[in-house]
């Protein structure tokens, strides 16, 4: 049994961390730390929690006790960077849900995140926690960078194809749509209900920070070619839907490709291969990623759906907790 | 032909004022004044305007020229109060879309709006512009307080009943639902798409500023009894739906009641009496108010639907412009 | 440990019955019976079930084995009437989620449901299962009529007021809004996404079948006065929001009223009294009913929110299962 | 001045045809023909029309008088095929909003539409009415096949690129999202509000009938390479959003490409080139197609937004009417 600290636990992601960890059978205690909401009660922040989550008081983020074994950090970009080295230096385990340590190369932070990384030596200490792929490598890990929501959806969709047919790939186009909760709970006029109702828009075209993350991880399995990545906002609260088009050098063999997906995900409790393109609703409020692969001539079209707050954030983080301690992958998640 | 000034024209209501006045055949010129958006181009504020509205620059609100005959004022509560006396003193006509002059009684501002009214002497100068009821009285008016969105929906729904059967009325319960655009375009975390998606909530229960406005206008036609008014937010961008339950002393005569509604609204271009409860969609993007009256024993249930930004704001204001100058009621509105 | 049959288990309500009963620790086995979907697999009907619900085959409704101890019946109006007497005659326990046995008086079926009841003698055998009120009376019950979704929301909201202050009540106006899932999964052009998107409408005004059900239950605690009930469709999938206005003879004493609500619901695990009007989202996907009571002069405004498929159907039915067998009220529901 | 017949005018597309043609200054009369709705009044079919559209009776589709100069045909696939030859043989002009004559090659109907074309000789008589591209060629046309909604969005987005840089193009991936109104007004369980609320899904992957239409038209300007086309349903009523990724052989010159778009659409009243990706809301309820072009290395990402019922159907059809008679392109459309 362990106890955990949830740092930055009062946003949308934090809410699900609390929900999952509160009922996790191997977690006997937890504390929630927040910046602006320190001193508030969980029931006031999350009225839906009343009656089934403990009504804890949020503790101030700048006054963290080091009593827990492991800390989940869910802070805005640039903030977890300043906190995590101290936690690691006290021999605490850390699962970081933000982007500050996901990239391996310091230079990419200048280019894509627009800041100079202050602790580049920690970049190589983290393990990239794509739970359904490298879960077994994460056992006893000390520091996990939890993948971004879009990269989770794209990498799970592409992994078996790239791993087995990379030499055939000409280029890749990724078109992803996300619900608005991905942008967090901060007041913004462009994310008002009145603005997004009935609306759709592409954003951050060719500038999204998840692009280098996707490229970095695909490079590790051999892909170094052209990949485009276009993100859109969807008028739903929850979910990511990625449509990935891969052009191959030659006519594709559908059965051979599908069979590699089956081999890869056979044992994965949270990947469901589908015979038809998934519906977003099948995965919302779950830790599943649903994937369909369709083939026509020399093109492969992969559709991949997940819940951005769960599989794309808090759910995968808890899965990584289970991976670290060698617990069953789905503990606390079903 | 006249020219008009639109003060505070860069919010949701202002957008429709511009749209209607730009194509109004008796308006030869207009200027748009704004606070935070002064200096910006209309196309940058309202990209959907590109190509069919003139790409004017927004002028600063604190530097109004007095060259126009009439000014539409659409500013936050407490701000139009400071501006309108100056306009009237320059012999300008004013249609105020805010609440600062709607109430007749200074005391009510203390109680319901929470501020002391600085120019109470102007309260009695205004005419209350419920366009479909007192339109003919507004001819050559100098100063019109445009009704609130909820009061428009409730007063149009109740008017023929109270006017003709007031002595029968025991009490009235109004339950109104509004789309989120009624709350304006300001960044607020509680109005984020992520918060309001799939959501509904009552708000300002027994505290809504539109309650004294409704009571004031009903009192003018004799009703001084119990009226409750409960407002809710609806997960749609546009529209108000009011359900009004009136208990009578005796069994109601449906035909007699309906016939008074028909008499009242026979000539009203923008009131459509319906045989079934209206759907919100029938009125969105129009200046119509659709009304149904249903009777059971001694209760009358009135459903009333309108577009809060049009019939509940900009559309009714343009209708009032037409009333002032004696133009056809629907000029610029269809 | 018991085994259960779910008859009519392939609609929206059935889906939640399966979900709850599959993980209910005292249910060791279940079968699902359907009409049009007999022969299909649960994963094909409910793709979101894949991986955590058993992939059973739906059995034909007209070939029910009588091997289970208890049957949940979720069939269209008029169909459960023909089935339930046979189950009861075989000494099976029954929880009926439809309306065929909710009313006590045969005549009301002619008037409100439009059919002649074929088994009126069974009307008096059922117990009305408003779980949070008469839970303790349901122990060892054989035949429970599970309340309608609207009545649950209205009765829970009104119960402590009527029970304690009935002599003070002048009249009651109920305005309820429901998500579209209340209308079921049958193809209907008026319930297409394209029709209901951004839409709201009142329906069945003065004709809704839940009106006599509400009146019947309130009469049992003394209320025999005027009650109006107006139902609306809301553009959300899930949830009911009821706004109940009660006029009293005299000025109401807020503290006294609230204190009766607290007394009544103190021990109720699934009723949460709120200091502000509830938001629909607080209850969606839960078995909670959230209630707020607000008082002004001689009026009491009660807002009540619940999930129509859970607290208003499947969840309350499982709560009633627990009531019958004396299990903890929330078994299988959290 | 002309008079027009609207055949199949009681669906979503028909509604907009009526709206536009009713106020078109060069149309002095119109009739509406329907199948299932013959005999009904327009106000009963479209309650929102009350008060500003003539309350005509829908005439039976199988009893068309040949008194009008031109007929708009908006019937399901396979039905307009049987009707249009008769109209043409009577020397009537026809604008077909369905797909029955859009393709040039009879064989493609077998393959993609699944029926044998009965009047293949008429396929070559039609002109493909992509109004903003070939408008000038449509003058005095007798028979126009109005483009599909998706092809309009994709072809307008790709045209200047393919026309000027076709030799550079390696392959094209199109990912399109459509609101539910594209599927029409027929009752379908999978398009219920309850099903599509908060949902997204890819559909007809590699099987969508608009794919050969897009390929056919691109071939006319030289493109004969790889194009993938993946369509999705969006939880909004209106609008199409296409994201088109084009890989080029070499690094792209952004200014050169943008300049060709500007040249092409300089004079097009209904194409708005945008400096940022368009929002769907900018075009809903208008006849505009908004386009943005973004370039990174050797990839070009084009985003294109339009209203499927207007620019993708009724609006473009009216634009084609204007093209035929040489009237101003926007007559009746603004």
Outline the structure in words.
The structure is a homotetramer of 334-residue chains. Chain A is of the alpha/beta class and 334 residues long. Chain A contains 11 helices and 14 strands. In chain A, the strands form 2 sheets. Chain A has a 7-stranded parallel sheet, with helices on both faces. In chain A, helix 1 links the parallel strand 1 and strand 2. The longest helix of chain A has 17 residues. Chain A is globular. The model of chain A has no long low-confidence stretch (mean pLDDT 97). Chains in contact: A-B, A-C, A-D, B-C, B-D, C-D. Chains B and D meet through loops of B and helix 10 of D.
Summary, kept brief:
The structure is a homotetramer of 334-residue chains. Chain A is of the alpha/beta class. In chain A, 30% of the residues lie in helices and 24% in strands.
Count of strand segments of chain A: 14
Following the backbone from N to C, one meets helices and strands of chain A in this order, namely: EHEHEEHEHEHEHEHEHEEHEHEEH
Describe the oligomeric state of these chains in a short phrase: homotetramer
**Interface with most residues:** B-C, 44 and 44 residues
**Which percent range fits the helix content of chain A?**
25-40%
Question: What is the structural class of chain A?
Answer: alpha/beta
The CA-CA distance between the termini of chain A, in Å, is: 19 Å
Radius of gyration of chain A: 19 Å
In percent terms, what proportion of residues of chain A is strand?
Answer: 15-25%
Physical arrangement of strands within the biggest beta sheet of chain A: 3-2-1-4-5-7-6
Count of DSSP-assigned helices of chain A: 11
The main β sheet of chain A shows up as: 7 strands, parallel
């Amino acid at each position: 049994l362990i106890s955990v600290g949830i740092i930055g636990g009062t946003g949308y992601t934090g809410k699900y961390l609390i929900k999952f960890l509160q009922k996790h059978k191997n977690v006997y205690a937890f504390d929630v730390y927040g910046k602006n909401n320190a001193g508030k009660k969980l029931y006031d922040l999350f009225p839906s929690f009343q009656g089934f989550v403990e009504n804890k008081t949020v503790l101030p983020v700048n006054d963290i006790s080091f009593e827990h074994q492991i800390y989940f950090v869910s802070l805005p970009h640039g903030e977890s960077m300043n906190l995590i080295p101290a936690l690691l230096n006290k021999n605490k385990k850390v699962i970081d849900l933000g982007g500050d340590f996901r990239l391996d190369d310091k230079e990419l932070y200048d280019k894509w995140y627009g800041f100079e990384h202050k602790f580049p030596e920690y970049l190589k200490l983290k393990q990239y926690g794509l739970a359904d792929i490298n879960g077994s490598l994460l056992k006893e890990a000390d520091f996990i960078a939890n993948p971004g929501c879009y990269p989770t959806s794209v990498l799970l969709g592409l992994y078996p194809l790239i791993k087995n047919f990379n030499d055939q790939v000409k280029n890749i186009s990724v078109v992803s749509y996300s619900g608005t909760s991905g942008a967090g709970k901060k007041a913004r006029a462009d994310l008002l209900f009145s603005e997004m109702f009935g609306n759709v828009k592409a954003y951050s075209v060719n500038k999204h920070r998840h692009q280098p993350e996707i490229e970095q991880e695909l490079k590790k399995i051999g892909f170094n070619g052209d990949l485009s990545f276009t993100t859109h906002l969807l008028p739903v609260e929850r979910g990511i839907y990625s449509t990935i088009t891969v052009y191959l050098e030659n006519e594709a063999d559908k059965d051979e490709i599908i069979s590699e997906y089956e081999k890869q995900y056979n044992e994965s409790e949270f990947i469901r291969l589908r015979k038809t393109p998934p519906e977003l609703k099948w995965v919302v409020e779950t830790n599943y990623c649903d994937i369909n692969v369709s083939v026509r001539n020399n093109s492969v079209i992969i559709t991949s759906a997940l819940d951005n707050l769960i599989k794309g954030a808090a759910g995968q983080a808890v899965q990584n907790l289970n991976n670290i301690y060698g617990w069953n992958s789905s503990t606390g998640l079903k």
